[in-house]
Design a protein that fits this description.
Blueprint lengths: L1 H18 L2 H41 L3 E4 L8 H16 L1 H4 L12 H15 L8 E7 L5 E7 L10 E5 L6 H13 L3 E6 L19 H14 L5 E6 L1 H13 L5 E7 L5 H4 L7 H16 L3 H5 L3 H9 L3 H7 L9 H8 L12 E6 L12 H6 L3 E6 L8 E2 L5 E2 H19 L3
Length: about 425
């Protein structure tokens, strides 16, 4: 009896994930119950195998991605035409972008299941069961602040191998970004993670931090990497909030950056309205703001209060991510919140980017909501390529039967590798 009920419930759940139809879910659950009741173990195996295969095929058939970009024929000016043509060449040359399709792990395909599996993998990555070996470099900044760079354990690769820089999430570090680095290593790329002020166990050494990151700090880190690897092709990947820093850095640096191509994974676009997670998912918002307070505020009380006790109290008492971001602007070095947005909102700088950039967003993202995706900006910027997927949730995008793969790391490295090859074969 128990086996029949379990198989019936599981079959119904898998069908719901694939079909999102109550009628089909009930029909499949009923058939599974009858088959398992009649043939016991054999019925359970046949029932679960059939439903699993049907679910996988359904996801494969219905989860095609959609590309948004500006066609070169609609551009004016040589620079814009060159960037748009480069995007078109990348699409043509990269099979995964030519017909993009994200097939989620069939038993964790919805946004909460995808996130739950992602969190479980993150916990394993940060546990003693996973060997994360990084080489850390500390960089002292002119104002007394400190940032760090964690380099992957990839000394077996040639010194002039292509190099990808990862910009972590709003409270992340190299430990949460390790799977991207390991995948890059397998693809023959050297890599590192840029840890921002207050991250990765390095306390603040000046009363200054920016939750979105500081483009000047990023420039110092990029210069350090370029000096260490002068012959390497440089690329950059921003993850969630790291995407905002990627846009701001590339926009401010323009053609002066040594970074040749980039990918922005699950960006939030306009940060004036992006951090309103509490309206739809208050528990997720509460988790993020409490993580921010632990990382930036509670560990750095003395040094932050030396600059502004009022701002410290406002950040400590913030109940949402939106409140925290709007409260912390004095610690980011600005007189008003409007000054902060003018400098740190990535939408202020995206129009100045002159490098090809892949942007990936899912329709079921609970943090960077689908309603905030700015297709209008992508369609007006010749170097941008937006890939919209039906599923994936927020920076999860698990793939494979057992959910061990990550579509984001795979598609971003496909894009960067294609851009690199085209850059070498068709310079300029």
């Amino acid at each position: 009896m128990a086996l029949s009920v379990i198989c019936s419930a599981t079959s119904g759940y898998l069908t719901w994930l694939a079909e999102e139809s109550l009628v089909r879910m009930c029909m499949v659950a009923g058939v599974s119950l009858a088959v398992t009741w009649q043939w016991r173990g054999l019925g359970a195996v046949v029932s679960m195998s059939a439903v699993s295969l049907a679910s996988y095929l359904r996801h494969k058939r219905t989860n095609m991605g959609r590309l948004v970009f500006l066609e070169s024929s609609k551009t004016t000016g040589s620079v814009a035409h060159s960037l748009a043509h480069q995007i078109e060449k990348i699409i043509t040359s990269c099979p995964e972008l030519n017909r993009p399709r994200y097939i989620p792990t069939f038993w964790a395909a919805d946004h909460w299941g995808n996130i739950a599996l992602f969190v479980a993998k993150q916990m394993f990555d940060k546990s003693c069961l996973r060997s994360n070996r990084f080489t850390r470099e500390i960089i002292k900044l002119p104002d007394g602040g400190t940032v760090s760079i964690d380099f992957a354990d990839d000394e077996h690769l040639p010194h002039d191998s292509p190099f990808v820089i990862f910009l972590h999430t709003i409270t992340g570090s190299a430990y949460e970004t390790g799977h991207y680095m390991r995948y890059a290593t397998r693809r023959g790329w050297k890599s590192c993670v840029f840890n921002r002020r207050g991250h990765a166990g390095v306390s603040l050494t000046s009363p200054c931090f920016n939750v979105m990151g500081d483009a000047a700090d990023t420039k110092a880190q990029v210069d350090f990497v370029k000096e260490k690897h002068p012959g390497s092709y440089l690329a950059m990947v921003g993850i969630s909030a790291g995407s905002g820093l990627l846009f701001t850095y590339l926009g401010k640096e323009g053609n002066n950056t040594p970074v040749r191509a980039a990918a922005a994974l699950c960006p939030a676009y306009d940060i004036r309205r992006a951090f309103r997670l509490a309206e739809n998912y208050p528990f997720a918002d509460k988790h993020i703001v409490e993580s921010m307070q632990r990382l930036f505020i509670k560990q750095n009380e003395q040094i932050l209060c030396s600059k502004s006790k009022e701002t410290y109290e406002a950040c400590s008492n913030a109940s949402t991510v939106h409140e925290f971001v709007r409260s912390h602007f004095p610690f980011a070095g600005f007189e008003t919140v409007e000054d902060y947005y003018a400098d740190s909102n990535p939408m202020e700088w995206v129009g100045k980017i002159v490098r090809p950039v892949l942007i990936v967003n899912s329709e079921d993202d609970i943090v960077c909501l689908a309603e905030n995706i700015r297709e209008d900006i992508v369609r007006s910027h010749p170097g941008a390529l937006l890939l919209r997927t039906k599923r994936g949730s927020h920076i999860s995008f698990n793939e494979g039967i057992f959910g061990t793969g990550c579509y984001l790391s795979r598609i971003s490295m496909d894009f960067l590798e294609t851009a690199r090859i085209l850059d070498l074969t068709e310079p300029g």
